[in-house]
Amino acid sequence: MNGRNPIWKSLIVVFATVGLTVGFVVVALIVGPDIQSLIVRAVVVMLVIFLAILFLRYFALIWFAYLGHAERNVLGMKELHELPPISIIVPAYNEGPVIERALTSLMKLEYPEYEVLVVDDGSTDDTLRIASEWEGQRGPGEFRVVTKPNGGKASALNAGIAMSKHPLVFCMDADSYVEPRTLLEAARHFVDPAVGAVAGNVKVENRGKLITKLQALEYIEGLNLARRAQGFVSAVNIVPGPVGLFRREALEEVGGYDTDTFAEDADLTLKMMSAGWRVEYEDQAIAWSEAPERWMDLAQQRYRWTRGILQAIRKRKALFLRPFPDFPLWVSTVQLGFEALVWPVMNVFAHLFFAIVALMFGAGELIVYWMILLTLLDLVAALVTVSMEEESLSLVPMALVYRFVFILFLDVVKMFATMEELFRLDMGWGKLERVAAT
Amino acid sequence: MSIVDLLVTIVVVTILVTIVLAVATYIAYKLRLAREPKPRESTRQGLSYFVRFDPPAMDADEVAMDAPNRMSGVEQNAP
């Protein structure tokens, strides 16, 4: 995994996929009318199945998310009598342009006692110099800065955890910043001794371009909706890197972060669930994150996420055949696998198949009605989720191009990432350039 | 051309163009990755990404006091 993979291996994966598709078109053209009629019928069946799966998925997610939302708003949250002190770990590798903003947000936290530990992971820019200016500062919390040779985010987080002291550990990204009440809202979940971690709510900060607006909607409608639904059954399968609060006892029990995947957050969450800890979601624990502003950077980010998640799932492949005794863990892992592995491939080939059939066999009308139904579904889902998050309604119209452009684009990238992971091609971390958008 | 025909054209073109652009973007990303300069040998030797770090089983106060000494390669900055 050194990022020095020969380009030709990746290109073979791409051209093999394109070749298979072209092969299908050629075969469909040369077969007789009976077979072509069969193909059209198959498309109709696929359309219905695809729509049914999509509808069920949305319905289940929105229903559970609504139950979680209602539970929180009607029953309220239990309060901790005493707020335990928190250690905040900020791993940083070449985050010079953005780390100041992250640290400034930590000075404004509404929490009685916390420490901040910045772990510079061998940065080659001015990250360490900027962070060092915060060393020893005291607000509600004391700031400390350590540096170590570059070893990756997981190793930096492990180092920070080992050097910190408080019973709760908050892990965040140096390119994100948090809302003042984030710790307060997340810490309340730990009134339940079975809770090992709380996933927060990541929002896209830079929303000036179409690509970032689409990501803002995706975080709300795709990522956070799923977490909210999973949170209702205390089985959130990814505590996101920018905002996660952990019980130290749980972290130590599972041995901290593993360094053998590129999705250390998903891997750690699954480890904690395997150890019997509950993982909850807190929508008021908010972190703002800078989303990629270029399509190629977005592709890079999702490539890494997909392969990282698949690596985390691969470590637990035996779990797929064992739904019991830990059914919530099984559901979480299967859902993670479905979203990362099955759904993107299915989505890309379904769209391609439908487009080809519309062109070749004149089934265009049917496909247009199907598209209209999907778009309506997306619009409703966007409206519900944006309302739940009390977000800007200006994001809702993005749903018009969400599925046919944005999700399709991401799913193509995920599909290739999946194939590369299946063939175990090497990969690198792929550091994104940050611009500290305001 | 009827409205439905127009919608069919828009939908099909959108799908195909999106897929083609996504494949092109992916190839461009891979080419960019391949063109990135290789790390120098000395830097490579310093990489320890896959060295597992296990937090030691000590109580919280001991960890706070001893951690800097126990962390190989970790340097505490002076205030």
Summarize the helices and strands and which ones pair or pack.
The complex is a heterodimer of chains A (438) and B (79).
Chain A: H1 7-30, H2 33-75, E1 86-92, H3 99-107, E2 114-120, H4 127-132, E3 141-147, H5 153-163, E4 168-171, E5 176-178, H6 182-187, E6 195-204, H7 210-232, E7 244-247, H8 248-254, H9 264-274, E8 278-289, H10 295-314, H11 327-361, H12 364-388, H13 399-422
Parallel strand pairs in A: 1-2, 1-4, 2-3, 6-8
Antiparallel strand pairs in A: 4-7, 5-8, 6-7
Helix pairs in contact in A: 2-7, 2-11, 2-12, 7-12, 9-10, 10-11, 10-13, 11-13, 12-13
Chain B: H1 3-35, H2 41-46, H3 60-70, E1 75-76
Account of the protein in words:
The complex is a heterodimer of chains A (438) and B (79). Helix content of chain A is 56%, strand content 12%. Chain A has 438 residues and is α/β, with parallel strands linked by helices. Chain A has one domain (1-76, 192-438). Chain A has an eight-stranded mixed beta sheet with strand order 3-2-1-4-7-6-8-5, sandwiched between helices. In chain A, strand 1, helix 3 and strand 2 form a beta-alpha-beta unit. In chain A, helix 2 (33-75) runs parallel beside helix 12 and helix 12 (364-388) crosses helix 13 (399-422). The radius of gyration of chain A is 23 Å and the shape is globular. The mean pLDDT of chain A is 86. By secondary structure, chain B is mostly helical. Chain B has three helices and one strand; from the N terminus they run H-H-H-E.
